Peptide ABC transporter permease (Neoroseomonas lacus), 334 residues
Amino acid sequence: MKTFVLVVNRLAWFVPTLLGLLAIVFFISHVIPADPAAFVAGENATPETVAAIRARLGLDQPLYVQFWRYILSILDGDMGRSIYTGRPVVEDLLSRLPATLELTLVTVLVSIAVGVPLGVVAALRRNSWLDHGLRVVTIAGLAIASFWFAILLQLLFSMRLGWTPLGGRVEGWGPEQITGFYLIDALILQDHEILLDALQHMILPVVTLAVPATATIVRFTRAGMLNALQSNYVLYETAMGYPRRLVIWKYVLRNALIGTVTQIGLIFGILLAGAVVVEAVFDWPGLGTFAVNSILSSDYNAVMGFTVIVGTMFIVVNLVVDILHGMIDPREVR
């Protein structure tokens, strides 16, 4: 029952949160000194042609009128047409969404698989050379700029050593579209060649995004472990003769992961934002590349559609994080 109340409470904040996000992005995107009507008309267009296109796109209306009309169209499931591609924004976003989700989910899984064990080891060997080394590495991982790190990886592993592809999702055509996730589609079709090719293309983008994400998970897991190890119940269970491994992995880690789970939800949103730069560097055909091209062409509808999709995913992920909190520690459910 408490979980149901939690879900209803979070969903009640979904609409105002998304409306606030849309309002901010809408007004910021419309006050920048760029005219999408001039972009559509071309360099040699006359002022009359630009004015006609502006009227056709509704850009001659006051901002609040444009925003209200956009909200009404969103409710009808229509995000307008992209100036950049000429297709409905919904189609563009849905065609690119699997690429970004696949990259983000694989990065999150890799970060959890590496970060949680390292955080546990760092806490259990506090102030050892391993702990100090991990702290230095995690600080460096958080400080590195993603675009700079991505270019370095390309220069070393793609251009100099030739171990990995330079960019893209696969070499040539991808697998038959079933889910849009190349790894899953290749497994379903049992196409091991495309599966291996997709994994090779994913290595550098995943490493670029996973370094800061893993560093964050290591730091929060370590902090949670140290706090849990000093709890009274750990001292009691140790005094009762429970095996140390059992105490750590069954009791301590469960309580230590509460803060880590929260960070994983935030990391998902950060990765979606970071994917904009990383996808552009690696020519990854996802939402990030689409967003960059849309911003450069002042494609308001596409930028707003990207905001709706990313904002919705971020809110849903945070809802899942709250539910996981309740599963890990029922006291967290309010």
Summary: Residues 83 and 299 are 5 Å apart (CA to CA).
